[in-house]
Write a structure and sequence with these properties.
- The protein is mainly β.
- About 15% of the residues lie in helices and about 35% in strands.
- The chain is built from two helices and eleven strands.
- Strands 4, 5, 6, 7, 8, 9, 10 and 11 form an eight-stranded mixed sheet that branches. A three-stranded antiparallel sheet has the order 1-2-3, with no helix packed on it.
- The protein binds zinc ion.
- The site of zinc ion (ZN) has 8 residues, from loops.
Length: about 180
């Protein structure tokens, strides 16, 4: 049973709206169409003196695994504001020089993950809410087997490749599974 979020009626049916090409939940009482679209997760790849800042997650999913600071974009903020906010909330770090870097589509879970590169102001950081530990890693010491998400691993792999030229073009990719496992 699904109720209309607009009028509360339970006369919600799956139908293709006029002029559309896929089924939506439509309220037969007030005609409200319940569109469901992908959600945006935004964060940063923060660096300081050539090291990368990672956060150990305190919450599920993937508690105890390392991640880049990121989270759901909120209404009323820009992408870079979301990246800045998440970096401060999770890593107590102030982002400077944010540059759009990695766009990952995850069609199997209806999400888009977006990472900016940034520097950390004054090298200051710490464990924010939802974080057990925050730590700077040399690129050679990234704990690949203990990364929380495939998108985080992908972003770090791009960074490892791009830093050799010192050029960081925007990278766009599609990822088919959510969790990181290091392939042999
Ligand atoms: Zn309704």
């Amino acid at each position: 049973m699904m109720f209309c979020i607009e009028c509360g009626s339970n006369e919600v049916k799956l139908q293709i709206p006029t002029g559309d090409n896929r089924q939506r939940h439509i309220c037969l009482a007030c005609n409200y169409i319940h569109y469901v679209n992908p959600r945006i997760i935004c964060g940063t790849l923060p660096t300081f003196n050539g090291q990368v800042l990672l956060c150990k997650r305190e919450i599920e999913p993937r508690s105890g695994f390392w991640t880049l600071p990121a989270g759901f974009m909120e209404n009323g903020e820009s992408l870079s504001e979301a990246a800045y906010r998440e970096t401060f909330e999770e890593a107590l770090a102030t982002s400077v020089d944010l540059e759009l870097y990695t766009l990952c589509s995850l069609p199997h879970i209806n999400q888009v993950h977006i990472f900016y590169r940034c520097e950390i102001l004054d090298g200051k950081f710490g464990a924010g809410s939802e974080t057990l530990d925050a730590k700077l890693f040399d690129l050679a010491d990234i704990p690949w087997d203990e990364l929380a998400f495939k998108t985080v691993a992908q972003c770090l792999e791009f960074y490892q490749q791009d830093i050799q030229q010192g050029l960081f073009p925007i990278r766009s990719t599609t990822i088919k599974s959510p969790y990181q496992t290091r392939e042999a």
